[in-house]
Design goal:
CATH class of the largest domain: Mainly Alpha
Shape: globular
Strand content: 5-15%
Number of domains: 4
Number of helices: 27
Helix content: 40-55%
Radius of gyration: 32 Å
Largest sheet: 8 strands, mixed, barrel
CATH architecture of the largest domain: Orthogonal Bundle
Number of strands: 10
Distance between the termini: 56 Å
Length: 733
Amino acid sequence: MADEMVLRAQKFINTTYNNGATLGISKLDENGQTGWPVMYALTRALQYEMGITALSDAFGPTTLGKIGELYGKIDDTTVPSANFCRIVQSALYCKGYDGGEIDGTYNDRVKAAVAKLHQNMGVSTIYPGGSLWPKTTKGLFNMDAYVTVNGGSDTIRSIQQWLNGRYLLRKDFYVIPCDGHHSRDVAKSMLFAIQYELGMADGTANGVFGPGTQSGLKSHTVSLGTTGVWAQLFTAAMILNKRSVPFGDFTATVKSGVETFQSFSKLSVTGQGDFPTWASLLVSYGDQSRKGTACDGVTMVTPPRAAALKSAGYQYIGRYLFNPSSTSLPEKQIQPGELATIKEAGLRCFPIYQTWSRSADYFSYSQGCIDATNAIEWAKMHGFKAGAIIYFAVDYDAMDGEVTAYVIPHFRGVMRTIGENSAYGVGVYGPRNVCQRVADAGYAATSFVSDMSSGFSGNLGYPLPTNWAFDQISTVTVGSGSGAIEIDNNIASGRDTGQGDFDPGIPLESNLDTDFDKAAYKSAMLGDVQTYLESIGVPETGGEGWTADDDWVTYDVISTTEAFNMVMDADWLFTNLARTLKMRKALIQAPVLWELRKLNPLDAIADEAVKNGLREDSSTGWGQIFAWVTIEARNYCIQQGIINGTTLTSGDRRAVWDNLQEPEYNIPSVAYLTLYNAHQLGITRPNLTTGSADTQALLARYNGTGDDAEQYGRELIGLYNVLENYNKLSRAS
């Protein structure tokens, strides 16, 4: 919603500073909405008015120091110019305070707004009155909130205000948000606070959980009856970790909460705020001297190494299913005979799947499906039994928006593929926020937490995920000589115990379909598809023919090229299905491409009738499948153990029809229908060597029975042959 005074602030910047050119920025959108672009512009304007020549979006030490140097504080006695005052007034409005009329006058309304700002920051005791001080000016010129927002906790807000009020006069402590949410800034402010209370001087205190801080905390155990600032800091840390205890003294309620937290985190349950508990509350890796019972590594577990791990108290080891590199970390992937060694040593193994996964652009729904398909193949090849949880990696500091836009869809693809096509479970490896959000979305049973990366924004300010299985806290070397092995030391919660027995393993099948080599063959294949279709009366655009319902129609909704490109864009899905079901993907592609090309206006009318409740069903989506047929096909595949799922009934027809609007559901249904049709025809399930006669029969059965279906099969076998020819070339390349 537009705010009139924010709009006036935007117009003031544009008018006064040559549409931003004077400030080195573009003209502000005059939309009445606050945000970083406005704050950055106001910051630059403030710098400009103070004579700073190197303007910057950041309100850094130069800007902060200049305010102190030139004015000491900002009020009606020191404000240097009307425009300077207008900048302050505009910033107040952008933060939700009454800044007066943006008239350049530091009047009583501005003073009242500043006083309210200081009150909300929790610093009104140290900064009474209506004057802005350098650090609170810095706090004004950003997007931090000083009131509880977005469902924040009033208790957390009171802690934030307490920290500001107690420590803002220290040199390196700056105003933190008071919005009721734990965050990176709040986590760091807690470390500063502890260092100040330990007696560290300005310049020594740095907000880092270093040796001095750790040593000091070991002398500050708090327990039942402790009062004062150390009890306040400890209870604040508990609350920031989402523990429901009162802020203040160490009461019996706090003791009970500590015991629950210690039990959850697999710490010794003492009921006291001892060093391991302090550490777990303050930094993601906690007390790195803890010896875990789980580990993970990129080195082969040989018999001497297995003995060393066992002797060091380890029970579970995470190993990688696959290594995409042929040169880097040659032992990263589980090696031949390694799982047998792990079993013989009495250890257990949990599988990890990772290729790249170190930037947001790696993650997508389709990549999740691809990763899951590959992980299933490798897990079976190594011999992991049903029930093994495979951990899919998010190995970077994913911002919260990236988790929403990329990571969550990725794991939706992982979960859908694993759940429908295997008996394995899904786990997630990554920072705390990633793990918790994937778990909350229902896409991971357990979490393997990358807590060594304590500086990750996804770890700072986030508690240990509720479903954590393994907590990665340090890198250590155990054993010596031939038994020496470097590992990541992990705390185990017991939610996942890996596997201690393994199947012989299923070799990776050769000659499976691969991703289509678009660079080499796409143009040529399109040309051959066009030539073939034209030879049977299907031009690039337009065309006429009979429908299965004996309607004469013009099929001109999608051209041959458009249909072909749609199929190519979904190549990942066709490949996944073909590899999973051990069949040729051309057998899935051919009817989909054909049905897309043959879409006609009557299809859309039928779909609208279903949407409006005038019909129960229609052939729909990319593969033009009826919901009732889909139900029969999927139920058959479920009954045969080909896919997992709950048996569908006629009562599910509309839900299935709705699902068929999505290619990710429709295209697999085409594949499952093909398997069901083999059963209907009494022929062998399609495989990698299915002959031409059976292939044509399956293509014909896709359109039902009778003369029309036979004609359908004769037409599609030619299309199949074109597609299979180029798929074969891709397999060989």
